[in-house]
Amino acid sequence: MSTDPAGRDVFVAHAFPEQQADIGEITMNYAEVGDPARPAVLLIPEQTGSWWSYEESMALLAEDFHVYAVDLRGQGRSTWTPKRYSLDNFGNDLVRFLSLVVRRPVVVAGNSSGGVLAAWLSAYAMPGQIRGVLCEDPPLFASELVPECGPSIRQAVGPLFALFRDHLGDQWSVGDWAGYRKAAGAAVAGVAFPTDGEVPQNLKEYDPEWARAFVEGTVAANCPHGRLLRQVKTPVLLTHHRRSVDPETGNLMGAISDQQAARARQLMEGAGVRVDYESIPDAAHVMHQADPTKYTEILRRWTTTLL
Fold it and tell me: What single string gives the DSSP state of each residue in 254-266?
């Protein structure tokens, strides 16, 4: 029997065997597939996601790459760390993982908050660790309380995170799923809420204190997105998925607005790196899970352009 830090029996088996690496403060859980002689790829899941949201994509990518997919601290089987969820801590965990486990240059592909962390690695990883980064529909600026431009988290996914904080509690200390379902309704800011039946598997493996850190602004308090983007050092591919902005309220339905994507590109190009951009307005936010064939085609095609 496997339990999470709150003592609940929550974990299930997945398509690939899981491994653990002691990287200092935490033990990082990960899965690995593919020939070690092939180029290395690191996959970073979305908030509320564990490594296995990439299962189907990993099977496809293994034809050409040596693939690692991780659970960030506070998600999946990796260590949960109360009061220690920040972009810098997440990022430095990944730097240690690359140094201790991967041990060679890697292409990074992250989704949502994982896409923000891909950009973080481009800016702050150790020299030579990162070949390039794919930021899959990342909430750049849109997951900050006071963004440099465009809608804030309060105008986007913030209401959902507030419900996680209030009804589930840090480390599932509240666990009021029925109360959450009642409060959630159908959607807020265009974000579909899981409200039917039992707790989804991905949320069982997620510390809702992540949500608190985002909705209260502590996650990026020492790492403003504008400063981060001005310091990227590698090629970047930014994919931009389904989105719209309510003209009356300014609420963002999606991860990142057109204005914010344009500003992110401007800042990264100003740092002197190559920035490629793909607008895919019919794509789901978690494209790597919803359409793994399309996702892997995009990643494969882009990596062929890297030196």
Answer: SSS-HHHHHHHHH
Instruction: Indicate the pTM of the whole model.
Output: 0.96
Question: Letter for the amino acid at 69?
Answer: A
pLDDT over 50 at 281, yes or no: yes
pLDDT tens, position by position, 226-248: 999 999 999 999 999 999 999 99
